[in-house]
Every structure is written in structure tokens, then in C-alpha cells.
Design brief:
Order of helices and strands: HEEEHEHEHEEEHEHHHHEEEHE
Distance between the termini: 55 Å
Shape: globular
Number of strands: 13
Number of helices: 10
Strand content: 15-25%
Largest sheet: 9 strands, antiparallel
Structural class: alpha+beta
Helix content: 10-25%
Length: about 375
Amino acid sequence: MRQADSHPSRRAFLGATGTVTAVGLSAGCQSHSARPDRSEGPAPTPPVSPTGRYQAGITLPRPAQRNLLAVVADLADPGSARPLLAELGEAIGTLTTGTDPRLMGLPPGDLTVTIGVGPRLVRRVDPALPGAKGLPRFSREEIAPRARGGDLLIQICADDALLVPVVAAALLEQAGDRIRERWRQSGFRGANVPVDKGLAVPRNLFGFIDGIVGPHTRAEQERHLWLSGPAPVAGGTLAVLRRMELDLPGFAQLSVAEQEAVFGRRRATGAPLSGGPVASGPDLGAKTPDGRYLVPADAHARRAHATAVGVGLMLRRSYSTDGPSPGLLFISFQNDMRTFTNTLTRMDNSDALLRYTTTTASASFLILPGFDRQLPLGSRLFR
């Protein structure tokens, strides 16, 4: 920035109005002894490599970006999966490295694009592969046929909200008439709340901290998140998307104590009602002196507890939505689909939280293994 002259600069004027604090200015004028302002704003957001053993946008970056768009589509010709995925992988490379003119000059920052394929495409390769079976139907669903299932998932995440629709337009243009869009949903995350060393998660629209429990360490992710075999899917994972409308007015009518009983955690801190640190799991056996469970029998923290269900951990990256009705885009990643289906089956019976949700879209996908120049996106599965 060049040395300012004796006239008030725009930055100085903004500083005097309280919009920008201008160092070295007095009464809106620059002191002759002041140094020029060489501030360049916040440091650039570190990029996230699109290549490697796993696709980006699942465990990296951490914490997850603030904005997301999920696009679910069908392939006009399922036999075109291999060349289409390879092209999408190349486009992801140019978009995330900032060399694609379709970015309109926007810096890619922490942009990630994650690609998954639906059960119909997986079955064409091998009906025994993970991800070949779709989701069963559950209660409290009001899902139009077009909003159930799909062949292709394009998940776009970035801290910069401007990037998301620009990248979506570029990828859909790349795919052209080879795909037919089924539905899409954008979402956002609130400010992250630190809950453990190296772990911070946001609140949901109900006001509760979301995503505390999950496979957060590398060892947990190897055990519960990533697929280890067979070879065509190793390094991938299984994703579930559920778009839900939330009954915010009905939930708001509850007292804070009643809301906490629904979740099984404190609203302000996220700590389990049984006591202990925020990141610790609830003690499901803890009782009051008169014999009542501290975590109620129908609390979400109890009904969805992995040990109580008898399944592994799922990694949740939920996003709030503000469409015609406020809601939530629930996304879970796991290496065994029973982790999700058994959990929701148990919740279906008597989870207090489900009284305030209605699912309006649902799909499952095999998230493809990572890729690079030698192994294009999808080449391990579609040989």
C-alpha cells in the first residue's frame, strides 16, 4: 500500500467511523510520523490436497468447512461411469489448485470435492461389494421418489460460501447431459465449540453441540471409518445423507431441562447428563438416588449410543439448512452400513429427538477411494 498523503485516506475515514481501526490516525487524519499500513488481511486459507489414499472432505480439513453443497444425480448411461469419474477427478484437481478458469479468479482456499457412487452402480460391478444395498425405509419419512437414492454424490465444501455454487456449476458443466440431477441441498455450520484436545464441533439449530462422539483418532478411523477391502473399495467409506426438517417451534416450547432430557446432554456445555467431560460418553448405568436414569431411557444419547446399539462409530458432519423450513442435512461416514441402519432402527422405536424431525430426502453412497495421476478417480472400482 503506497504512503498516504496529508489528505484523509479511505481507510482513515472508515477508521474514524468505527468500521476499521486505523493505527496512527488521530481525528481522521494521518500523523506525519505514522508508518504506512501494510496490512494484507488474514493469512490465506491452507489448501487441501485432492489426491492421496483417501478423498478429501471427510476427515480433512479439521474442523470441517463452514459451507457445503450436496448434489445427488443419476447417470443417463450407467456404463459411462468410468470416463465420467475420471473427468470429474481431473476437474477437481484444477479447481482445488486454482488453475481452472471456471473459478472466475476466486482463490480455492480449503475447497474440497468428495465423490460417491450409489448402489445401482456398485451392483453393476459386484453385488457383494460394500455400498451395493440401498437404505431401508424408516418412520417419520416424507420423501418424494426423486429425493430417494441416486447414482452420484458430489459433495462440495469450503469456508468461502462464494466458491460452492461456482464449483458446482463447473462440475455439472463438466458432466453435461451424462447426468440428471435429482436433488441438491446447501448447508452451513455455526462457530466451532472446542470440546476436547484437537476437536471442535458446531451447534445445531436446536442449540446443542453436534458431532461430539465419533472416530476422531487415526486408530478409530482405521477401525470404524475406512474400508480396508476388497481392493476396489479399499480407502473408501460409506456415506448416508438424510435431509430433515426440524420442528423448532415445538422444541422451543420445552424447558431447558426438558430439551436436555431429549438429547441426554447439557445444552450449554454438551456434557452428558450422567456427568464427566464433554467428550466423554455418557454413563448409561448412572442413576439418581431414587433409581431413575440420569440419561433418560428415550434420550438421543442413549438410543444412538454405539455400545448400546452394538455397532461401530460413525463420523457425522451435519450441516444446518435454512430453506422453506429450517432443518439439518445429516451426513454420516462409516465402513459398515449396519452402523447407521441398526442405529436408526433402534432410534425409530423410542428416540425422543425423532419427534421433532421429518426426513425429506435420503440416499447412501460408496465414497470412492482416493485418486492421483496414476489412478484416476473411480478407476479401481470401474475397471
